[in-house]
Amino acid sequence: MANVNGVECNAAMPGHGEYKMPGGKLVVADVEIAGDRLARVAVSGDFFLEPDSALDAINAALTGLPRHSDAEALAAAVQAGLPPDTLMYGIAPEAVAVAVRRAIDGGAEA
Amino acid sequence: MSEARWREFDWRLIHAGPQPPALHMALDEVITDEVAAGRRPPTLRVWEWASPAVVIGRFQSLRNEVDPEGAARHDIEVVRRVTGGGAMFIEPGNTITYSLSAPESLVAGMSFEQSYAFMDAWVLAALRTLGIEAWYQPLNDIASHAGKIAGAAQMRRGKAVLHHVTMAYDIDAAKMLEVLRIGREKLSDKAIQSANKRVDPLRSQTGLPRGEVIARMIDTFRSAHGLADDAASADELARAEALARTKFATPAWTAIVP
C-alpha cells in the first residue's frame, strides 16, 4: 500500500522505462502497477505510427496484463491489439515490450 | 525514373511572411488535405516563423520532452504537430523549415526508408552546390561529417503524403537544452558525446545568410522538378486559422500524450 498525498492506494509509484530500438527510434513507457497488474500504461516516443489512434490501442492492449508478463507476452499483446492497417516506422511491438519491462523493473526498484 | 516522377506534377511554391507556430501546424494539415482531395497541386511550402516554439512529435510525451519552466522563462510556445518524430527547438531565423504535400503516387511502391530519402534528394543536391556533402541517414535525418543537419517527418493523409523537414541553421544549443529534455537513452547509439553537436548549424558550414540558403534550395527544386509561385488561398488560410484556434493552440491537443 502506498500513500499518495495522504490517500492510501494500491497503486505503486509509476515506473518509467526507455528503449532506443537499434536502427529505430526511442520508445518510452510510463507504467502504473496496481497489485499484480499493469493498471495504466502510457507509451510515447519519437517514432512514427499510423493511424495515430494506434497509440491508444497499444496502451489499452498492455493495460491489465500481469506485471510478471515477459517481453514476449507483452509484444504479443501489443501485436494482437493493433488495428489491422497499422503502419510502424522506428517502432515495433518488441521494442514497446522492452520499454514496458524496463518501466516495470525500474518501478519495482524505486 | 525517380526524376520523372517529380516531373509528372505541377509543383507550387508557398513562401509567405512570418506566421505563428500553431498556424504552421494547421497549414500542413489543410494543404495536404487539399492535395489529397485533388483541389490543389503538389506544394512545397517554406515556413517563416513569427515567434519561437518547441514543436513536439505526435507521439511524444509533453512532460517527458519539455521543461515547462525553461519554456516559460524564454517565452517559448509549445505546439504538437500531426507527424511523429522528435522535438524541435525553433527561433525565427535559426532554422529552415519546409513541407512537401504530394499525391501518394509520388512515393508509391517505396518503403518508408526509400520515400524519406527520395523526398529530400533535391535538398542534398542543393546543399552540395553550397559545398556541404550531406547524406540521408535513416531513419529520418540529413547528416554531414560535422553532424546532424536536419530531421524529417512524414505521414500519409488520405491519398496524399506530407513530408516536412526542419534544418538547423544557427541553433542556440544552450537555450535548447534549457527547454528540451534530451534523454541519454536517445543518444546512446549515436557516435557523439554532446547534444550540441546534434544541431550543427548550416550557417557555419555555408557562411551564407539564411535567406540565401533558402533561395538556393528553391532554385534547385525549381530547376530539377519545376516550381510555380503560389500562395495559400483565402479559403485555405481561413480554414487553417480556424484549425489553429480549435485544435493546435488547445491544451487538449498539445497534451494529448501528457
Task: State the end-to-end distance of chain A.
Answer: 14 Å
Helix content of chain A: 25-40%
General shape of chain A: globular
Counting DSSP H or I runs of 4 or more residues, the number of helices of chain B is 12
Largest β sheet strand count, sense and barrel closure of chain B: 8 strands, mixed
Using the 3D structure, state the CATH architecture of chain B. 2-Layer Sandwich
- Beta-strand percentage range of chain B: 15-25%
Average residue-wise pLDDT of chain A:
89
Strand arrangement in the largest pleated sheet of chain B = 7-8-9-10-6-2-1-11
Number of strands of chain A: 7
Kindly state the mean pLDDT of chain B as a whole number?
A: 92
Descriptive terms for the model:
heterodimer; A: 110 residues; alpha+beta; two-stranded antiparallel sheet; 3 helices; 33% strand; disordered N terminus; B: 258 residues; alpha/beta; BirA Bifunctional Protein, domain 2; three-stranded mixed beta sheet; 12 helices; 23% strand; aa-tRNA-synth_II/BPL/LPL (chain B); BPL_LPL_catalytic (chain B)
Q: Can you put this structure into words, describing what you see?
A:
The complex is a heterodimer of chains A (110) and B (258). By secondary structure, chain A is of the alpha+beta class. Chain A is built from 3 helices and 7 strands, in the order ββββββααβα. A 3-stranded antiparallel beta sheet of chain A has the order 3-4-5. In chain A, strand 3 (15-20) and strand 4 form a beta hairpin. Chain A is globular. Mean pLDDT of chain A is 89; it is low at 1-10. Chain B is an alpha/beta fold. Chain B has helices at 2-7, 21-36, 62-65, 68-73, 112-119, 121-129, 173-179, 184-187, 202-206, 210-225, 234-248, 251-254, and strands at 12-14, 43-47, 53-56, 77-80, 88-90, 95-103, 134-137, 141-144, 147-157, 160-168, 228-230. The longest helix of chain B is centred in the first third of the chain and has 16 residues, at 21-36. Chain B has a single domain (4-249), classed as BirA Bifunctional Protein, domain 2, CATH 3.30.930. In chain B, 39% of the residues lie in helices and 23% in strands. Mean pLDDT of chain B is 92; it is low at 188-193. Chain B is globular. In chain B, strand 7 and strand 8 (141-144) form a beta hairpin. Classes of the chains: A alpha+beta (110), B alpha/beta (258). Chains A and B meet through strand 3, strand 4, strand 5 and strand 6 of A and strand 9 of B.
